[in-house]
Specification:
By secondary structure, the chain is mainly α. It has a two-stranded antiparallel sheet. It is about 50% helix and about 5% strand. The chain has two domains: about 1-70; about 85-150, no CATH class. Helix 1 (about 1-45) runs antiparallel to helix 2 (about 50-70). It is flat. It has helices spanning about 1-45, 50-70, 115-125; strands at about 140-145, 150. A hairpin with a 4-residue loop joins strand 1 and strand 2.
Length: about 150
């Protein structure tokens, strides 16, 4: 019985969160589009076509999200055009040079040309979906040019 009540409480909490999120996004979209109108009225400068299209698209997506969330009592929220929740995992050691891969990640070549620097970028993109990098990877490379360390 306790497990069932815990599950029900979790669903209710998720539904409330979905309704609040969708409603907040809709109000934000209305505020942004309304801001375009206010700027026009106060400055006399009309919004650009890009502002109108992007603001209208975001407002439309927020309306669809809110409609779905409301019609399902918050059980569903499609998150159209949602920016998501970024999560950073633990750093993973990556080899440098011709070393074999470590932890399943390709080694970063020691660069001596622009093409080899770009090879390190390609290696980072290839890490997507591997342990510790479910979507993509970012590599931080420290370069010592003799006059001090530079990080990029």
């Amino acid at each position: 019985m306790g497990d069932g009540l815990g599950w029900l409480g979790g669903r209710a909490s998720g539904a409330t969160s979905n309704l609040a999120d969708a409603g907040g996004d809709l109000l934000g979209g209305l505020r942004d589009v309304g801001g375009l109108g206010w700027d026009f009225l106060s400055t006399g400068e009309p919004p650009s076509v890009t502002e109108l299209i992007s603001g209208g698209t975001v407002l439309l997506a927020a309306g669809v999200n809110a409609s779905v969330a409301l019609s399902t009592a918050g059980l569903l929220h499609p998150h159209l055009l949602d920016d998501g929740s970024p999560v950073a995992g633990d750093p993973q050691t990556v080899g440098v040079g011709a070393d074999p891969a470590q932890n399943g990640h390709r080694s970063t070549p020691v660069p001596s040309s622009l093409a080899q620097i770009m090879g390190g970028v390609t290696a980072a993109y290839d890490d997507g979906g591997k342990s510790g990098t479910p979507d993509a990877a970012i590599r931080i490379t420290a370069v010592d040019k003799g006059s001090g360390r530079r990080t990029s």
